[in-house]
């Protein structure tokens, strides 16, 4: 679905140091794997989910889902975050769910926040301030190429 996706290609999993509890026992996750962190991807490895995705915690507030705090789940197969409380998202971030005629919602890090379209993944740039994604041609002003170094969206650049 997202072959040659620039956003996905920028993700890399680096093994976190083994965590020991107070009894010097290795702490393992529920699925039996060690906890990992996300950084830049250099190979064809698929990114592993973050701690919040593995533990089914909201990426924004870090708490679990309950009756008063329902999740929207990112439909991107390689999203490292996955879970977002509806109440933790801005209306514009939820709008992509209503604009699409399918049962799939993409989180702010996986879908252009300007046009809400899942296309041209090689032209997507993540804001270094808030992790929201934008196509280069949807930026204000539009860009013809991926910026080198840090890039900030209009909200974070203020």
Order of helices and strands: HEEHEEHEEH
Percent of residues in beta strands: 5-15%
Rg for CA atoms: 17 Å
Distance between the termini: 35 Å
CATH architecture of one domain: 2-Layer Sandwich
Task: Report the average pLDDT across residues.
Answer: 68
Specify the helix fraction band: 10-25%
Total DSSP helices: 4
Largest sheet: 2 strands, antiparallel
CATH class of one domain: Alpha Beta
Shape, per Cα inertia axes: elongated
| CATH fold annotation of one domain | Herpes Virus-1
Order of strands, widest sheet: 1-2
Strand segment tally: 6
Structural class: alpha+beta
Report what the structure shows.
With 158 residues, this protein is of the alpha+beta class. The chain is elongated. It has helices at residues 6-9, 51-54, 91-99, 154-157, and strands at residues 12-15, 36-39, 71-73, 83-85, 124-126, 133-135. 13% of the residues lie in helices and 13% in strands. The longest helix is centred in the middle third of the chain and has 9 residues, at 91-99. The strands form three sheets. A two-stranded antiparallel ribbon has the order 1-2. A hairpin with a 6-residue loop joins strand 5 and strand 6. The protein has four helices and six strands, in the order H-E-E-H-E-E-H-E-E-H. Among the domains are: 49-110, Herpes Virus-1; 112-157, Herpes Virus-1, CATH 3.30.40. Residues 101-158 form the PHD-type domain. Pfam families: PHD. One of its GO terms (molecular function) is zinc ion binding.
